[in-house]
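Researcher: Structure prediction, please.
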Amino acid sequence: MTEQTAADTAARVEGAAPGGRGTWSVRGRRGRRGLMALALGAVLLGAAACGGNADANAGSQQDGKAGSSKGAATPDGSQATVTVLPGDGATGVDTTGALQVSAAKGKLTKVAVTAKDGTAVDGAISADGLSWTPKGNLRTGTQYSVAATATDSAGKAASRQSTFTTLKPAASAANYGIFNVEQGATYGVGMEVSIRFGKAVTHQADVRHAISVTTTPSVPVEGHWFGSQRIDFRPEQYWAPGTKVTLHLKLDGVKTSKTSYGAQYKDVSFTIGRSQTSVADNTSKTLKIYRDGKLFKTFPATLGDAEHTTYNGKMVIESKEPVVDMDSQSVGLGNAYHIKDVPHGMRLSDSGTYTHGNYWRPLSTFGHVNASHGCVGLHDVKGGGDPSTPAAWFYNHSLIGDVVQVVNSPDKVISPDNGINGWNMAWSQWVEH
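Model: Predicted structure follows.
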C-alpha cells in the first residue's frame, strides 16, 4: 500500500474526497495516522489469515503437554525440525542415555545444554549433523535447559528450547568412593591415589571414565581395578618432586551398578614433596634413607625373624600413628604379643606391616639380629619422647607416600593391593585393567 493509497482510504473513511485539500485539521492528521495504522493492520491480518504458516508454526513449537518435545519449522519457513528427548518439563529423567537431540530435513548447528547453576554439559554433534549426544552422564536431581538449532538446505534455521529434571536416587542407592588423599596436603613421591567404594562396581568402565587424575607438569596417570570395589591411580614412575596433582571425581549420576549411583562431584588437589625413599635390607639389618637418589642416612634395624619374615618389595607409607596398639591376634599370630604403646608407627600394608619404634629390645639387637614379627623396627624409648632416636628421626622426617623397600628377605614380594603398593606391579599389567 502506498502512502497516497493509505491517505485516500483514510479520507473515504472520514467522508472527504480522496486527496482533498483544506480538509486536514490537526485533528484530521491524528485521525489519519490512526486510520493508516488500522488499515495496515487489516492488511497484515489478511495476510496471516491467507498463509497461516507463521502463527501455525509458532503455536506448534509450544503445543503439547509436559513431556512432549516435537520439532517444527520456525516462522521464517525452515523445513528443518529439531527433536529433544526427554520432553519439555519431564522429571525423574535418567542420568545416562535419556538425553538425545536430533534433526530432520536439516542439520544441527548448535546445541547447548546447561544445568541450572550454569554448568555446561559437554557433548558433540555427529559428523552427519543429525544428532547430538553428551560425552558423559548428567548429575542427579538437577534441572537442565536445552537450546538447539538446525538449518535446512536453504540456510533457514529452526530452533527448540526445553527443560527437564533428572532423577534423585534413594539414599540407599548411593555408592560413595572413599579416597585416601586430602585437599592441600603434601605427599611422598610414591603416593598412589586409592578409591574404595562401599558397594560393588559392575559398571567399571563408566566409573573409570568419570574419574581422572591430572598433573602439573603433565604426566600420564592410569587407573587399575583391584576387584570390584577399589581403583588405584599412579604414574609409570615415582612422581617428580613438586608435582601438583588433582583428583577429579565426576561420579554423581554415574551408574556404578544396575541399582546404585555414584554420589560425588568434586576435585581434590595435593602436592608431591621432596624425594625420599628408603631401603630396609634383611641381610645387613639396616635402613638406608635416600634423598634425591643419594644416600642420606643409615640406621641399624631389626626385621622379621625366621618364623615371621618380612615381605619383600616396595611399600608406601599409608598412615602415620604416634602410638600404635599392636596385638598379634589381629594379624593371625595368636597370643604372641600385645604391646599397647608402640611408638612412631608408620603403616606399610593393610595386613599389619609397619616401621616403628622398638623400646623393648636391647640396643645391641638393632643391626645384628632380626627379631621382629615381620615389621621394620628401629631403636626407640618407651613413650617415644626422645627425638634423637632412629625411630623418632625417621618418623619426623617421613611423609605419607614415601617408599620403604625391603630387600633380601626370604619372604615373597608383597601383593600390590596389600596397602597402596602398586609399584610392585609392572606398568604393562597396571594399564591392562
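Model: The chain has a mean pLDDT of 86.
Researcher: Thanks, that helps.
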